[in-house]
Amino acid sequence: MNKSIIAVAVAIASLSLAGCGSEPSQAAAQQQLQTIDVAKVLVKPVQNWHTYTTRLEAPQEVALMPRVSGVIEQISFQEGDAVKQGDLLFKLDPRPFAAVVDSLKAQIASAQAALSQAQSEAKRAERLTERKAISTEQAESRTSTLRQREAQLLALQAQLQSAELDFQFSEVRAPIDGIISRANITKGNNVLAGQSVLTSIVSNQKMYAYFDIDERTWNQSFARVTAESGQQVVMQKVAETAFAHRGEINFIDNQINHTTGTLRVRAVFDNDEQQLRAGSFARIKLAASQVSEQVIIPERAIGTDLKNRFVLTVAEGNVLEYKLITIGERYGSLRAVSSGLSKDDIIAVNGPARVGPGMPINPNTVTINSDGVAFTLSADSADLVAKQ
Length: 388
What we know:
By secondary structure, the protein is of the alpha+beta class. The chain is 29% helix and 35% strand.
């Protein structure tokens, strides 16, 4: 009797303990699920961006050479300074040129006197011929002498004009506005006309950037672009984090290069702040003219699996699912996805850092922030694009 009572009591106690332990175990299992931020993907109208490398070129560049030979007497600029068209840069010793000018002026004075005498004799010959007081041969000789004196005077006047130009060219002046380099030849050295490179000047108010677009890309994305359409571009220099310089296409070559299959295009940039230098390496970014809708997700949501890109989506039962994707253009901290996701997909926004496929999670719903991101290039959004 006592043994039966004890056995029943033990059984009841065991059932009670089992019942008490089931509820905490279920709560503990719930607490073990990781809380993961998830969000529904965005769908936005976007323009694809194309990036090209280039080097900046000045619209005008001059290797400055003297037009006359001589000895440098004076250098009138600070190396590396900005110069204006017409500024005096070099001065050659002007005395040899001045002497030639003076000599020709004297010869012209003599030729004018000889011409005056020849004119008088020719007029006298006409009067004498009318009275038959001089032979026809003598009259023609005096007329011929007059023509020779006229030709001699014209030749000397032409020589004087050339000599005066040489005298002017003894002062070497800036042919364009721009930034001047160092003096390659210093004071006291002899220079040769058309051979000695004194210095160089590059214009600095604008900068050109030439780049080549392959034929397929041009036909797909830029076929409607013309030099007059003002297609906007942005540029990034070496060590810059943003595409901070804005310009526009102002030249498209007239034919495809049959050797490379590319089309040469030029963008022009204002350089009012003097931040651009000729020869600088740069990256050009320009938007395709066509606008299409694409799925947008955060860059950090994308994982890499060998050569594949993937994201983790939330499936039934809040279980993560592996999905391969094809990525498109980057827009700030966001990335377009050209295939692999639909507009209704929900993704793990922080990527596969702490979770993996097949793992159940405790989802925390958030919103993908696209404020301050320009997905298409317009007058209002160009500044935002430049910062991306």
